[in-house]
Amino acid sequence: MALYVVATAVAVFPQGHVDVTLQHAAALMALWMVREEVARSPGRLAALGWAVVAGGLAVAAVALSPYAGRGVADQETLTAMALIGADGRLGASFQYPNTAAIYFEAIALLAAGLAVSSRRRVPAYAAAAAAVYILSVAFVLAASRGAVLVLASALLLLPAGLPAGRRMPAFLLLAGPLVAAAATARGFMESGAWRDWTEALKWLSLGTLASVAGGVVLAALMSAPPRLRGCFIVGMVAVGGLVSGVGFTATSPADLVRRHLPQHAARLLDMDWRTRNALLRFYYDRDALKILQDRPWLGGGGRAWERLYHQHQTFWYAASETHNGFLQTATETGVPGPAALLVFWAVLTYTGWKGAHAKGPEGTRAAVWPLAAAALTIGLHSAVDFDLSYFFVQLLIWTLAGAIAGASFPTPTVDQVATDEAPAEQRQTGPNTSPRCGRSRRSGTAALRGVHPALAAAAGAVVLAVALPHAASAVATHRAWKRLDAGDSAGAISLFRLAARLAPLDPQPHVGLARANPGKREQIDHLAAAEARDPYWFLWHEEEATAHLARQDWIAAARSAERALRLAPTRAQAYYLALGAYGEAAIEAVLTGDRSAGERLARRTVDIAEQLVRRRQATEPVKHLWPDAQPALTPVFHLRYGQALALLGDPRRAVPHLGEAAKSAAHRIQAEIWLYLALEAAGQRDQAAELKNRPWVRALDINPVRGALRSVQVDRAAGTRYLLRAP
């Protein structure tokens, strides 16, 4: 939190930085509140854990509801099923299935750990088995390769921190329902795809009941004598080995998975660093390190990656987050950020382990490690994905961390305080029980009791003072966009102005005001205001260039396009805007008699066109990674490149490009006029004769423009302008 406050001075996107800082402040407040509550009443730790599990089940229910005909209107059912598909990935409750998968996995770990830590084994095991099954179904349908890789570690992580008698039950509570979920997922998924909601619910109910039965049997087994329990475990291992041996003899496990869940298997079994996703993550991390190299100590503030990565990428790709939570933090806060994050995870691991093995009530101690294991599972996955960029994930982790800290360092009870305040001769002596030590501990505790509420109240007041106006601004902006889409420009302008007053750092209201005033001076002014608030976002500069082009202010459009090109040097649209602006400015200069300015502008047009060609050649090896990685050479490119070469007195190089542009119906007239002039200037009269009978070419005899290419006086009649810019 302190690092984000310091980074405020260098934030490249002030509003985004405020948003991220508020999220961290809210998460820190959640940690403090949960820690204080659990420290006062450690017995509430298990209840808090089960509440988190209940929340996870609610999320899983929302995610699975379209498969069971819930939460989807009839007219949208086919669309939803097309998005999900019979073998498609889960995408109903999250924009990003990988985060959904690791979230469900972490909650399943928590449920299993809490169950084996409970004294009431039968209801706890049954509830946990049902919860783990439902969460596992959602996990399987999410089909996340990263989460599957973490799963192997998670299945060992939870038992590793539990007492010896609880390790095997915890493993079985995780593995059993997971196998049941894999077995029933296809039937559930296909029934949902065919809109057979009853059958889908039957599959889900079958798996749930089987898991509950397994949980009850496991609970009964744990209450049995040790010898019987050992015999059962040995028998279970023997049966499992026999089944596995038969399976390996008959066919490979991969083939079984492929037959059962074809599309999921194709995705999950395709784990290779040479795959598209793996290579893209490599490029994301490399570009994040480039940003860190430029801003090593303070970073660029919240959402710095989103605003800076286009400057460093070697080919065009769109990724609002880098797929690495540590590097995301590094781009925002510099090197100290990931260092602090590593310290946080190390402290959480140590505190969870020590808390689970410290003296205290057995139920409280046993519940500490499952919370730590759930948080660490998400932390492991955040190294390959952007889980920590989601506020709800941050809130979950900081809540779990607060509960772990509160249970590990509980507030002294009344009896303990009374003993601490007793005269020295009435207290037991020991290493830390001297009168001086007692007074120091007592005075420090009293001081902290008074400071903590005051600091929390002050921090809460600051967060609310900043967050509430911004929330109101977001609501007003959302309503304004709806009104603008409905054609109510006046109502939209009023709401956008209100939003701009409530959130003075937010560029969105000014962008809305610009789009509500097309063709007016206010459009340019509000786009400039948006750029001032968000100077590193190329889209605002592109939009301003487009507005200047509509007003035929070619030089201003060229400047805006140049700024967009500097911020996103791999984006094709920025090149096309710059080519259009400089090309029009060069023609305008020649038509007005300023030949030197025309040549200078035409030379810049050629430079931009050749830069685009080099960019296209450089992206040849990676064009398979991203659909838009390699910029296309459109008819606009050929037209502007050919015009600029012709104006610079190089008609032979101009002819192929103008000929290519003439193939486009949208640019045929203008391209053929310039092609005819270029062929004539190059002495290729035979080819020029083929175009001479075109109506738009014959009109050149009425308003000759040949002089534009020969440095002689130009006819500045309106007809000449039309012919040079014919649609």
From TrEMBL:
Protein name (Swiss-Prot/TrEMBL): O-antigen ligase-related domain-containing protein
Pfam families: Wzy_C
GO CC list: membrane
Annotated ranges, domain O-antigen ligase-related: 206-340
Residue intervals passing through the bilayer: 45-68, 100-117, 124-141, 147-164, 171-189, 201-224, 231-250
Keyword Transmembrane helix: yes
Biased composition (Polar residues): 426-435
Organism taxonomic ancestry: Bacteria, Bacillati, Bacillota, Clostridia, Eubacteriales
Stretches the record annotates as Disordered: 415-443
Keyword tags: Membrane, Transmembrane, Transmembrane helix
Membrane topology: Multi-pass membrane protein
UniProt superkingdom: Bacteria
Annotated InterPro entries: O-antigen_ligase-rel_domated, TPR-like_helical_dom_sf, WaaL-like
PANTHER family on file: LIPOPOLYSACCHARIDE BIOSYNTHESIS PROTEIN PA4999-RELATED, TEICHURONIC ACID BIOSYNTHESIS PROTEIN TUAE
Subcellular location per the Swiss-Prot or TrEMBL entry: Membrane
